[in-house]
Amino acid sequence: LDVASGAAEMPIATSDASDAFTVSACYCPNTQVGGSEACAERSDFIQQVGRLYFWTVRLCDVDILDDACVARYGQALPQQPFRIRVSCPPGQACASGSSSNRLRLRSTSDNM
User: Fold this and answer.
1) 47 and 24 in contact (C-beta within 8 Å)?
2) Which of 26, 58, 62, 64 meets the CB 3.0–4.6 Å disulfide criterion with 81?
3) Are 24 and 51 in contact, with CB atoms under 8 Å apart?
């Protein structure tokens, strides 16, 4: 956290992250307690204001049907069969039974 500007840096997802995860976004009321700097400590952020969900997507071998996707690919080539496994982060990011859970594959040339 940059106390002067009030800007915070988002956590960086490392390239070796293997599971989906959830991060809470919290608010600090910018009050000074006991002579310490305002919003400088983790405990100063007392109100949760949101959540950020990070999913994990894996490209898996089509011949090995394991839920953990142990045989996974770092890339796929045209006409190479593969499975896509999406791991949902904790915190009900993928509510079971919901018809709104979707995965969209699109070309980089598609307009959003």
Assistant:
1) no
2) 62
3) yes
Output the six-digit token pair for 108.
Answer: 């980089």
Q: Structure tokens of 10?
A: 């988002």
* Per-residue pLDDT tens over the stretch 90-100: 877 777 666 66
Structure tokens at 44: 């100063």
Q: Residue 3: what pLDDT?
A: 57
Please measure the distance between the N-terminal and C-terminal CA atoms of the chain and give it in whole angstroms.
33
Which residues sit opposite 53 in a β-bridge? 22
Whole-Å CA distances, 43 to 12, 23, 26, 33, 82: 21, 16, 10, 11, 45
Concatenated DSSP letters of 40-97: -SGGG--EEEEEEEE-EEEEE-SS---TT--SEES---TT---EEEEEPPTTTSS-TT
Provide the 10 A C-beta neighbour count for residue 5. Answer: 7
